[in-house]
Inverse folding.
């Protein structure tokens, strides 16, 4: 209980993180969130003065790649600080406690911090046979999920499993694996899809929530706009090759060596919203397309059921694009009205403007898409 | 360094159209994501000063993309010679800072592009695409409007709870929001 009065900063210092490192963490994180230096000091101030918010991290049907991504956040400082900071009151992959002792932590947190903790969920509950396909700690995961969600202030869906269902929900989905927003219906669920999500995206979302004590701005599908508003195809460094009709025709052909566009090799960049092309992976070392492979679209809904990873996109209808690209539907309107064109133009321009301080003047409900 | 005259600007816009029209007839002729109702057209090109020297700014419409383009006044402009394909550059436009990607196309030379739309299936015909391109260019070249604050939240807070911890707290992690009271942002789990 007494821990509830500690600040993030207290916890960090107690774990031996220097003030210099702490401030560096704040500026690194502010940068990864696309925020300016002012936000870094705002973040530092919040972490020094606000009580620590407990985080409970549950695992359902999943492969733990989200945890792998998260705890290997490329900058060691980020994982050091964040792991101290969020203190993961419960995470069955990395906590020291086990068995009944571990399960007791869940109940304690539920009682002591009801309404104040963040529930992060990796994986999803299978609902078939009364949830019998996933029984952590002796009870169906779906029950544990619902119980812990009932006392949470907000719920984060880590990865494509929790957000969309991912491979275990692919047809024919024998266990009836179900994304968590269909089970947790009385709480905001922040979807952070990807298989896994990028480490910087995960730490960024969590740090934002913990330090600013508010939800990040979400798009209509419930994904944080700061990381999921850009389409791979629009920000891809190989995009000029697409525009110029220069394509890789087969693996390791001359065009592949020249770094041409991977569209014909099945790249799903035109239908995928994620931060890979800007944040990249492994501390910005590379990302799938830079390493010569097309985008699988792993952060999009039902990406396992959309044909082969190597089949060419023939049509973008039916993908998750409509919900994002608000301008789609102009053709259906027939003769274009100036109003529709103006809206499409304004949306497109708004999308390409870099936002240095998006947290202070952000629409919070997708109102720029209305 | 060549200062772009109106004649030069028109000539470069035409050269850009010619280069992309060749791609349209060539490798993009049977691309499944193309919109056959559209044609290659360079729209609204005008002189635009960059740090590296004079340039031209406009929008390129093709049956597969609509891009903002910044192009050198001549194909062999030495100031553009060092630009590597795929390189990213941010440039301040009146609307804000916009990230461009460097490309190059045969018969025209280097350019900087920023994607507005691709594919472009949502446009019914060329006039619709042209109008959107013109309006987008207008938006890019005027300062951003002050964002209209969201409508005053009604029945959200009555002063009986803790104040939001920071600006914009109306969408904060408040108990009310968490409990689905008030106007919950779309896309949150409730009812979906």
């Amino acid at each position: 209980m007494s821990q509830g009065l500690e600040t993030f900063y207290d916890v960090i210092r107690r774990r031996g993180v220097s003030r210099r490192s702490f401030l560096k963490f704040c500026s690194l994180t502010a940068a990864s969130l696309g925020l300016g230096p002012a936000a870094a000091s705002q973040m530092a101030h919040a972490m020094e003065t606000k009580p620590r918010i407990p985080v409970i991290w549950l695992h359902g049907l999943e492969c733990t790649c989200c945890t792998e991504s998260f705890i290997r956040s490329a900058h060691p400082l980020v994982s050091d600080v964040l792991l101290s900071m969020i203190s993961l009151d419960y995470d069955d992959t990395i906590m020291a406690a086990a068995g009944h002792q571990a399960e007791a932590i869940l109940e304690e947190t539920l009682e002591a911090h009801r309404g104040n903790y963040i529930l992060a969920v990796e994986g999803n509950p299978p609902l078939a046979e009364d949830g019998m396909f996933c029984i952590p700690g002796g009870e169906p995961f779906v029950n544990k999920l619902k119980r812990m969600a009932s006392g949470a202030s907000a719920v984060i869906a880590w990865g494509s499993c929790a957000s969309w269902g991912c491979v275990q929900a692919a047809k024919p989905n024998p266990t009836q694996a179900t994304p968590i927003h269909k089970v947790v219906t009385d709480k905001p669920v922040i979807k952070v899809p990807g298989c896994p999500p990028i480490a910087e995206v995960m730490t960024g979302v969590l740090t934002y929530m913990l330090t600013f004590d508010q939800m990040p701005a979400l798009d209509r599908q419930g994904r944080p706009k700061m990381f999921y508003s850009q389409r791979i195809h629009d920000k891809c460094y190989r995009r000029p090759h697409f525009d110029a009709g220069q394509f890789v025709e087969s693996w390791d052909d001359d065009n592949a060596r020249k770094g041409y566009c991977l569209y014909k090799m099945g790249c799903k960049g035109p239908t995928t919203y994620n931060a890979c092309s800007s944040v990249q992976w492994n501390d910005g070392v590379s990302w799938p397309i830079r390493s010569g492979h097309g985008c699988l679209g792993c952060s999009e809904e039902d990406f396992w059921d959309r044909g082969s990873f190597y089949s060419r996109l023939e049509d973008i209808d039916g993908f998750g694009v409509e919900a994002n690209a608000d301008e789609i539907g102009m053709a259906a309107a027939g003769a274009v009205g100036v109003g529709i064109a103006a809206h499409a133009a304004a949306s497109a321009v708004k999308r390409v403007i870099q936002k240095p301080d998006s947290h202070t003047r952000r629409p919070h409900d997708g109102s720029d898409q209305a | 360094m060549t200062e772009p005259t109106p004649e030069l600007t028109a000539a470069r816009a035409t050269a850009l159209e010619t280069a992309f029209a060749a791609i349209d007839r060539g490798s993009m002729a049977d691309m499944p994501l193309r919109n056959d109702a559209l044609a290659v057209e360079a729209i609204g090109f005008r002189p635009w000063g960059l740090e590296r020297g004079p340039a031209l700014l406009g929008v390129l419409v093709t049956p597969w993309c609509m891009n903002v383009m910044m192009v050198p006044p001549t194909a062999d402009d030495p100031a553009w010679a060092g630009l590597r394909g795929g390189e990213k550059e941010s440039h301040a436009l009146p609307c804000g800072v916009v990230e461009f990607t460097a490309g190059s196309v045969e018969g025209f030379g280097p350019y900087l592009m920023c994607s507005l739309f691709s594919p472009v299936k949502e446009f019914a015909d060329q006039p619709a695409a042209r109008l959107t391109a013109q309006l987008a260019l207008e938006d890019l070249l005027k300062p951003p409007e002050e964002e209209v604050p969201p409508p005053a939240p009604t029945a959200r807070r009555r002063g009986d709870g803790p104040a939001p911890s920071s600006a914009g707290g109306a969408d904060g992690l408040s108990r009310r929001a968490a409990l689905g009271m008030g106007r919950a942002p779309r896309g949150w789990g409730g009812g979906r």
Q: What stands out?
A: Residues 46 and 212 of chain A are 7 Å apart (CA to CA). Residues 228-370 of chain A form a domain with the Cytochrome-c3 Hydrogenase; Chain A, domain 2 fold (CATH 4.10.480.10). Chain A has 16 helices and five strands.
